[in-house]
Amino acid sequence: MTAETLKRAPAVHSRGNRKQARRNTLIGWTFILPNFLGFLAFTLIPVLAAFALSFMEWTSFSAPRWVGLANFQRMVQSDTFWVALRNTVLYALGHVPLTMALALVLALLLNRKLKGIGFFRVAIFFPYITSLVAVAVVWNMLFSPDSGPINQFLHAVGIANAPGWTSSSDWAMPAVIITSVWRDMGYYMILYLAGLQAIPTELYEAAEVDGASPWQRFWNVTLPSLRPTTFFVVVMLTVSSFKVFDLIVVMTNGGPGRATTVLSQLIYQEGIGEGKFGYSSAISLVLFVIVLTVTVLQFKLQQRRER
Amino acid sequence: MTNMAEDLKAPDLEDGVPSRGGAISPEDRRRSQRKMSTREQKKRTTDVVIYGVLVVLVVALMVPFIWMLSSSLKENNQVLTVPIQWIPSEFVWSNYTDIWTRIPMMGYLQNSLYLAVIITCLQVLTGSLAAYGFSKVRFPGRDVLFLAYIGTIAVPWQAYMVPQYIMMQQLGLTNSFNALILLQAFGAFGVFLMRQYYMTIPDELCEAARIDGLSEYGIWARVILPLSKPALASLALLTFVNTWNDYMGPFIYLTSNRLWTVQLGLRSFVGQFDAEYAMIMTGSVISVIPILLIFLVGQRYFIQGIATSGMKG
Amino acid sequence: MKRTTLAAIALAVTAGLGMTGCAGAAGPAEPQAQEGKTRLTVSVWNYEGTPEFKALFDGYEAANPNVDIEPVDILAEDYPQKVTTMLAGGDTTDVLTMKNVIDYSRYAGNGQLQEINSVVDSLDKDNLAGLDAFDVDGKYFAAPYRQDFWLLYYNKDLFKAAGVEDPADLTWDEYTALAQKLTTKGADGKTVYGTYHHIWRSVTQAIAAAQNNGDQIGGDYGFFEDQYNTALGLQKSGATLDFGTAKSQKTSYRTMFETGQAAMMPMGTWYISSLTQAKKDGKTNVNWGLAPMPQKKSGGDVTTFGSPTAFAVNKNAAHSEEAKKFIEWAAGEEGAKAISKIGVVPALQNDAVTDAYFKLDGLPTDELSKKAFTPDETALEMPVSDKSAATDKILNQEHDLIMVGERSVADGITEMGKRVKSEVLGQ
After folding, report:
1. What pTM does this model have?
2. Does B279 contact A at CB distance below 8 Å?
3. Which of B12, B70, B103, B159 is most buried by a 10 A CB count?
C-alpha cells in the first residue's frame, strides 16, 4: 500500500523536483542527525575498527601488525570454530520460529478485554526480568536427568530413555533453546501487542460484514497488517539468536565439552579472555557477514511481498 | 459509527479479532435475542478456557521467580541444596534488611535508575526522530544508511568492545556515566523498531497534514508521535529493561564503587571461590520491582487504541 | 493533558536524578590525595569481601604514612577480563594483583608488566612458596604474597558417628573405602555423602599431575587415568554427588560441607578463613578438621598442589618505585603477618608466620590439622606458560565430558592429548 502510494505521486516539473529533492535531503538529515552522530561515533566507527583489526595481529601492548588473511586461515582450520558455528546456527533455527510463533499466539490471546488481563500480561513478562542466574538454576533442575520433573513426566508417559538434557552433548542445545524460548516470548509478545493495537478495527468490521470466519479474518486481516511488525520481530530474533551469549554462559557455559559453545562466546574467550584481539575480530567479521546475509535476504523477501 | 474514540480499553476481541461492530436496530435486537445468548454462552466458555490456559501458563512462567523469592529468604548455604528446597526451612527476613547495609543498595538503585531513565529518554527521542527520517522522507542514500544501522545490530558487542574502550579512554570518559550514555542512547534498535511501526502508518495522513500546511517536524510531533504510543511505550519499556539489566557495560566503564549499578552490586556477592546466592537473590528481587512498576504503568499504553485524529471518515 | 503531565513528571524525575546521578549515589566521592602523599593504585577484586587487601593496605599505610593506597575494585568473577581491557586501553594503575598464574603468563608474555628482579632479590627466596612460578627465563615480573594449597577437610562429628578414625595418612584406595562407608541416608531422606568433589578440573587433574609428576601442558595425559577412575568410581557408588547435578545446579561446596552433607572434602586453604567466619557468625556448626590430601602410597611424603597470588607492577604505572616498595613489603614478613592474622595463608612460610596463623580463633589445633598445614611438596596447580590459557580451556571441556559419562576415561584422555597437541602445541 505504501509503495504504491509513493509511486503514484504526481510527476513534478524537473526544476521543482530537484528543489524538492534537495529540501527532502536536508529535512531527512535533520531528523536522523541527533541519533546518527552518536551512532556514527560510538557504534559504527568501533565496529569498523574491529573489522579492520581482523586483518591484524594485536596483543594489545605493541602496535597492531598487519597479517592479511592469517587470522581467517587459522579460523577455518580451527575445529572449535566450526563447532561453534554449527551450534550457533542450530540455536537460531530452533529459537527463531518457536519464539515467534509463541509470541504471536500469546499476543493474540492477550489482546482482549478480560478482567485481570493486565496481570497476565505482566506475568508473561516475568521470565525476561527474572535474574538469569535464577533462570539457569531452576531450569537445570527441571532438566535434571534423574530427579527432574521433566524426565519424571516423560517416564510417566512411557518414554523409557529420557534425554540427558544439559548433561548430554546431544540434548544440551535443545534444553537451552527451550529455556530461551520460554524467556524471550514475553519480550516479543510486547512487540506483537503493539502491532496488533495498530490494526484499524474497520478492517475487521469490513471482513465481518463480508462474512469472514475468525480464521479467515486472522489470515486475511491480522497477519498481513502485522507484516512490518513480524519483519521486525524476525530480524531482531535472528540477529539476537546469532549473538546469544549470556544465557549460554550461565546455563551450560558452552558445555558439556563444546556442545553448546556459540560464536559470541568464542569471540569473547579469544578476545577479552585470551587477549587475541585480531583473531576474535576475524570471527566477529564472519559472524557479521552471516547475519547480514540472512537479514538482507529477509529484507528482499519483505520487499517482494510488499510489492 | 462506533464510539472508538471514547473506548480507551482494548476492543472487544475474540481470537484477536473484534466480534461485534456497528449499531443494532431494535428489530435485530429482538430477532437476535436468542442468538445473543448462545453467542454470549460461547464467549463465556471461551473466556473460561482462556482463563484456564493463562493460569497454567502463568504458573509455568513464574516458577523460577518463585525460586528466586524463596532463595532470597534463606541462608547462603541453604540456597543451592540438592534437591531444591522450595520453602525455606527458616525464613531469613534479615536478608532484606541486611542488604541495604552490606552493599550501598540504595545508591546502586539510584545509579541504575539514573542511567536507565536518561538512556531511555534519549533513545526514544532520537530513535523516533531518526525513524521518521528513514520512513517518511526520501533522500539519497537513505536505504544504504539504514542498512548500516541494521548491520551493526548484527555485530555482538564483544567484538567492538575494545575499540570503544580505547575511544572512551582517549576522551577521558572511562569511569563515568557519560560513557555508557553515549554508547547506549544512540542505538540502532530503537530506530529500527520505530521505523517499522511508522511504516504501518499510511502516508495519506502525512499528505493530508502537509496539505494542511504542517512542516515535517510538525507532522512528526502532532500526527506521528500520538499515533505511535504503543510502539513508543514498547521501546521505552524494552530500553529501560535492557539498560537496567545490563552488566557488561557498567562493568567495563564504571570502576568507582560509587558509580556502580544494581547488577554490579549484586555481582559483588560472587567472591573468588564462591557466591552468596541468598544475597544475590534478595537483591534481584528488589531490583525487579522498578521494572514491574514501569511495566504496569506502561501497560496502559499498550491498551490504548488508535486515537481519532484523521483515521475516521 | 495526560501526556504533558507525564512529560512533566519525567522531566522532574530526570532533573532530580541528574543531581544525584552525575556524582554517583553509591558512596562518597574519592578523596583526593592529600598534599605530599603519594597515591598508589592497586587493582583488587571484591574489596569488601576480600579482607586480605584491606589488611595489607592498612598495614602498609601505617608503616608508610606518606603513601595513600587506593584500591581499584573490580568484580572477582570477571577480574581477568576487565584487567585485560584496561591494559589494552593503556590504563595506569600502579600495582596489578595477579589472580592466577595463567593470567600472569599472558601479561608477562605481552610485556605489560615491569621486571622486578631487584624486589625479588631482597626477599627471603627460600621460604617464599610459589616464587618459581613467576620465573620467566630468569626474570621475575611479579612476587607472591599469598599461597593456597589443597588439603582434606573432614567433618569430625560424622566420622565419630560412623565409628571411624580421623583420616590420617590415607591412600586413595583407603579414601574411597572410607567415603563409601561414610555415605548414609539420613532420617529425612537426604543423602549424606562420604565426600564431595567439586566440579573444577583441578580436583582430579591437578592432584594427579602433582602426585605423578605429570606435565599438564605436555599433550600426554596418561597420568590422569588413575585419578579419573577413582573419581568416577566414587560417583558410580554414590559416595559423592554426581558431576552432572553438581554442575548444572551450581552446587556450592560451602553448602555441601557446612550443612553436613559431605563428610570429607578436598579443597583449598582459602576456605579456612571463610569457614571460621561462618562458624563465628553462627551460620554453621560443623565440627571440622584438616588432614593432608590422600596419597598414592602411605607413609611417604605428602604431595599436594597449590596456586600463588602475586602483585605485579604495570608497565604504564604512574608510581613505579612506590609500587615496587609496596610489593617488597607485602611479600615480606610484615605483609605475611598482616594476612595470616585473618586466616589467609601467606606465601612466606616460616615458624613465626605459621605460629601467628594458628593463633586464629576457631582453627582446629589438633596434630593432624597442623600436619595438613605443612605438606612436603606443593606442585603448581597449572604450569606457567603462554600455552596455559588455551590448554586450560581444552582440559576443562574434556573434563566435563568424562565426568558426565559421555566419554570413557581412555577416550577422554586420548582426545585431550590430541586436541592440545593440534590446537595449542601446533603439532
Report:
1. 0.82
2. no
3. B159
